[in-house]
Design a protein that fits this description.
The protein is mainly alpha-helical. The chain is built from 7 helices and 4 strands. α5 packs across α7.
Length: about 190
Amino acid sequence: MGQTKELDFPDRLAVVALIAEEDSGLGRTKLMKYMYLLQTGKGVPFGYRFRFYLYGPYDPSVLSDLWLAEDWGAVTEKATELPDGNIRYEIRQAGRAGDLIKWRMPYLKPYYDTVIKTVQNLKNYEAADFEIMGTIVWLDRTAYRKGEKVTAEGLANDALEIKSRLKYRRDAAIDLVRKLSKEGMLRALDA
């Protein structure tokens, strides 16, 4: 059986527009983690090369795709400075998104339902939740590559240790492990 062909950059831009249409709370962190979860957890062949970074799995190419999608008129991005000095980014679908999606649909068709269903199932989570989810999947894949099995509690504890700055609750992290398992995104979890 042959290797799955990676999606071309216009296909990735169309996926950015699809996600922006489905998730009204989309920002940069959530977009980054959606792309990671779709590629790593669901097998959508974006071709990104994620590395672990401060906010979890990261590939600067995702932001390049966001900016290209904005240049194409498929999404808009608005930056707002918060009182604490942080920046909140809001990504929305824009006028040319429909044309881009329609043009790329023959290539997206095998992944369309996966993208839509995944976003619909996760869109109510906040950016911090996505940081934890990305970290959980990263840890799961690391264990899987080593041939190790992990528990829900172990994954949650390890993710919380890495993401201690978030002050995330342990029971909420375990719930995220269960959610990701239900979504079929974990491979090393000992059921």
